[in-house]
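ATP-binding cassette domain-containing protein
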Amino acid sequence: MAPAVLIENLQKRYGSVVAVQNVSFQIEPGEIFGLLGPNGAGKTTTIRCLCTLSSPDGGRLEVSGISVVDNPRAVRRRLGYVAQEVALDKVLTGRELLQLQGALYHLPKAAIGDRIEKMLDLLDLGEYADRKTGTYSGGLRKRLDLAAGLLHQPDVLVLDEPTVGLDIETRIAVWDFLRQLREEGTTILITSHYLEEIDALADRVGIIDNGNTIDVGTPSQLKDKVGGDRITLRIREFSPPEEAAKAKDLLLNLPFVKEAIVNPAQGNSLNLVVTAENNTLLTIQEKLRDADLPTFSIAQSRPSLDDVYLAATGKTLMDAELAAAGTRDLKKEKKQQMSAK
Ligand SMILES: Nc1ncnc2c1ncn2[C@@H]1O[C@H](COP(=O)(O)OP(=O)(O)OP(=O)(O)O)[C@@H](O)[C@H]1O
C-alpha cells in the first residue's frame, strides 16, 4: 500500500529566503505524525506545499500515491486542512459556514445536510450551530474549524498548530478527538511546538530545523537515541553559586554522571545527565551529605523531546524560537504570502 503521505527532498524558497531546503518523511495510513520544529523551521511551508496551497520548487510530494503537483484536485479531495489561524467569516453562522465548505468541496447537495449534522454532533457544536461565528470563543472556533476540515471525510487530516491559544480542557478534548479519528483510520499530520502535545499524540515524529529534516522516529526511539536519564537537583531553594559549583565538581566525579550544569535561572539548580543505573539518586544524596551539602529536591526523568531536539540541533526549542524571532519580518511575510502562491 502506498504511504498516506510521501515527502521526498522538498524544496521551497520565497525570493531569496529558503523556507524549505530538504524535507523528507513518510506517513503510513492511520498514523498520527508530529512535525516538530521552532518558529521559522519550515513546518507551515511544508504543509502548504502538501495541501496544494503553495507550489514546491523541487522534490516529490504524494498523498496515497497521487502526485500533489500533477493531480492537485484529486489530492484535495483526500486531504482536510486546518490552518494555524482561523479565518472565519464572522457574520455567517457555524452551520452556514459548513454549508459553504461543503459546496466548496462539491459535496452532493443531498449528502451535505446529513454530513453537517454528523460533524456538529461529533464536535458537540449543535447548540451553537445557528449562532454567528463572530460570537464564538477560541475553543468553539477551533472545533468549527475541525468540523470544516473533516466535512468531506478526508483520508488525511493536516493540522497546523491545532491547539494554540486553547485552554487545557479544550486542548485535551481536541487530543481525544484526534485519537478517535485515528481509531477510525484517518491519517493525521500535526505540527506543534508544544512538545507535550506531540509526545502525547504522535506515533512518530519528524524534527525539522532550518528547512531540513533532522531526525524521524517514534518519540521513544528518539529519546533512546539521546540516551541517559536527566536529574534535576537543588541543594537549597536558592543555592549560592559557590555551593552549586562545589556540588557540581563532586558529582562529576561519580562514574555514572556524564554531564553537569548549574542553572542560574532556576536558583542555581543542577542539571545532570546520567547513565541509567540503579540507586543513582541515593548515591548522589549520600555523596552530597558526606560533603555537608543538603538536598532540597531531586528528581530523575527520561530525556524529553526537548532533550532530543537539543541533541539534534545543539539548541533547545526555546533558544531556536528566540533566535528565529529576531530574524523575521512578519508584516513583510504576510504581504508576500498574499501575493505569492
Ligand atoms: N511568504 C513568505 N515570504 C517570505 N518568507 C517566508 C514566507 N513564508 C515563510 N517564510 C520564511 O520561510 C521560513 C519558514 O517559515 P514557515 O512559516 O514555514 O516556518 P514554521 O516552521 O511553520 O514556523 P511557525 O512555527 O512560526 O509557523 C522562515 O524563515 C520564514 O520567515
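thats it. The two ends are 32 Å apart (CA to CA). The first helix runs from residue 43 to 50. bye
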